[in-house]
Write a sequence for this structure.
């Protein structure tokens, strides 16, 4: 282990307890988000939008870039990305739930951005070539993968990133653990499918996966701590 990785592990060891496990299957997740896709924007957007917007600010997609939005949901970020990369760029969304993919396609069409592409699939196994993207965005998605799967998921996202590419993660955070997080985790235990985003240690997890963290912003979502992290493959 390099001294830097050793330091990262020690940092993780000092964190306030392990993250919760994911106890629903991917099939449950797909069915839930399919059913939820019609209301997701109205229910979740008022809470999630500020952190997602902050993530897009950090990612700062540029004209001509190739950008992937993993777990694109109803397409709010994907529309913004498609606008930013412009007609010479590529904006691709992918989502496990067909209902979310349809919602994203409608959002792109509604914004007159037919150039955006949406592909249904699992973010853990992407149908793209190595180095296919200049930037990858994942907002409230990394924390949906179970703990043992996260390193492989991040390796997959790094595989499709160009060596000098950027990854931006927006995630509920267990850093700054307190009563609100404690209560939310109890609700997650009771409702593992409906309340499936569970707080993780995003910055430390990205470091341990070998990413170089450029910036972390700490914000709140539903009064819960959130991390917005911009990083690069080393
Ligand atoms: C909490 S929502 C966030 C949606 C969107 N990124 C946003 O910020 O509004 C999580 C999204 O990830 C999708 N999802 C869940 N598991 C996934 C997986 N294994 N691969 C790809 N997408 C997944 C869900 O269908 C849902 O659209």
């Amino acid at each position: 282990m390099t001294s830097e990785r050793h330091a990262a592990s020690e940092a993780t060891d000092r964190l306030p307890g392990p993250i919760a496990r994911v106890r629903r299957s991917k099939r449950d997740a797909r069915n839930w988000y399919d059913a939820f896709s019609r209301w997701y924007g109205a229910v979740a957007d008022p809470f999630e939008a500020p952190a997602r917007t902050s993530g897009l600010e950090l990612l700062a997609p540029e004209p001509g870039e190739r950008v992937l939005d993993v777990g694109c949901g109803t397409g709010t970020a994907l529309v913004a990305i498609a606008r930013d990369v412009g007609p010479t760029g590529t904006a691709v969304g992918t989502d496990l739930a067909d209902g979310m993919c349809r919602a994203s396609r409608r959002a792109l069409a509604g914004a007159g951005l037919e150039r955006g592409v949406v592909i249904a699939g699992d973010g853990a196994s992407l149908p793209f070539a190595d180095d296919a993207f200049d930037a990858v965005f994942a907002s409230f998605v990394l924390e949906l993968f179970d703990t043992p799967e996260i390193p492989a998921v991040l390796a997959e996202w790094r595989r499709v990133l160009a060596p000098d590419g950027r990854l931006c993660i927006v995630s509920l955070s267990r850093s700054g653990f307190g009563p609100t997080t404690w209560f939310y985790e109890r609700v997650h235990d009771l409702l593992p499918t409906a309340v499936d985003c569970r707080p993780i240690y995003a910055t430390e997890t990205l470091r341990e996966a070998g990413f170089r963290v450029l910036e972390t912003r700490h914000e709140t979502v539903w009064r819960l701590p959130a991390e917005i992290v911009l990083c690069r493959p080393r």
